[in-house]
Amino acid sequence: MRAWWRRFRAPAAEEFLDAPDDELAAAAERYVQRLRRFYDVRARWHRRGYRLTGVVVILVGALLPFLATAEYANKELTLALAGVTISVVTGVRSFFRFDQSWVLLRNTEIAITEEYLRWKLNRRRGGGEEPVAAARRLIEAVTRIRRDEAGEYFKELPSPQPGVDGQVSIPAPGRGRG
């Protein structure tokens, strides 16, 4: 039985690495299809996270003036909980970077789909390329796409940097890098 948390991991490349040459094209195709599904599902979850956290912040923020001016029991607790809700949801949204990740994951899924469809069409047309060579080229293209996606993700990730006074600070994304 597969562990539930493995559903959230990208498919492993091992399944096609050990495939014999006569099965390489089919193994590569299965791998790319699973990888494309993985990015599609992740992009959808990040879209949902982005929208849900945005709606919660808007709604609770819009309620604050009403909650602050109305008279009711446990007013202080209610206002505190509303403030905590906005802080936590904003922090979660910032930490997971739902907006940036949604775009990055969707663009990666689109690029993988384009490579897969190009490979599939060439096979159907009888592009003249040997199946093993074509499968290797497909895997190389998908690996390059994933490497670019990882580079783009980590490029925007803020990292601690020592300041003038020796204190470590985390710059805003896009700042403090040469």
Give me the secondary-structure topology:
Elements: H1 14-17, H2 21-69, H3 75-96, H4 98-125, H5 131-155, E1 161-162, E2 168-169
Antiparallel strand pairs: 1-2
Helix pairs in contact: 2-3, 2-4, 2-5, 4-5
Number of strands: 2
Coarse shape: elongated
From the N-terminal CA to the C-terminal CA, the straight-line distance is 48 Å
> Residue ranges: pLDDT <50 for 5 or more in a row?
none
Strand proportion: under 5%
| Mean pLDDT, all residues | 87
Q: Fraction of residues in helices?
A: over 70%
Reported for the largest beta sheet, the result is: 2 strands, antiparallel
| Rg computed from alpha carbons, rounded to a whole number of angstroms | 23 Å
Number of helices: 5
Report the structural category.
mainly alpha
Q: State the order of secondary-structure elements, H for helix, E for strand.
A: HHHHHEE
Q: What spatial order of strands do you see in the largest sheet?
A: 1-2
In short:
The chain has 178 residues and is mostly helical. The protein has helices at residues 14-17, 21-69, 75-96, 98-125, 131-155, and strands spanning 161-162, 168-169.
